[in-house]
């Protein structure tokens, strides 16, 4: 199983903009090959300023590659970069 984990810094979003971001990110669960999807806002004190985290799981690396190239993903990446300040991504194979 492949885990694709992304954390975003989005400190200046009002409630409406935050809701729009979550709705837009939620569309990613419909990309073919996505096996699991989780999205949430940080509530802890150890996030180093990262507010939003998303985990998407895939069966194979090929599924992740196809997801990265999918038009829905590309559209949401462009949107996300307009409303968030920074992101960090981790891709790993579960043991």
Question: What's the helix and strand layout?
Answer:
Layout: E1 2-9, H1 15-26, E2 36-41, E3 52-58, H2 61-69, H3 71-83, E4 86-93
Antiparallel strand pairs: 1-3, 1-4, 2-3
Helix pairs in contact: 1-3
> How many β-strand stretches?
4
Q: Rg from C-alpha positions? A: 13 Å
Q: Report the oligomer.
A: single chain
Q: Summarize the amount of helix as a percent range.
A: 25-40%
Under the CATH scheme, which architecture would be assigned? 2-Layer Sandwich
Structural class: alpha+beta
The tally of domains stands at 1
- Using the coordinates above, name the CATH class: Alpha Beta
Taking pLDDT < 50 over at least 5 consecutive residues as the criterion, the unreliable ranges are none
- What percentage of amino acids are in beta strands? 25-35%
The major pleated sheet works out as: 4 strands, antiparallel
Gross morphology is globular
How many helices does DSSP assign?
3
Succession of helices and strands: EHEEHHE
Query: What is the CATH topology descriptor?
Result: Alpha-Beta Plaits
- What is the terminal separation in angstroms? 8 Å
Mean pLDDT across all residues, rounded?
94
Strand order of the largest sheet: 2-3-1-4
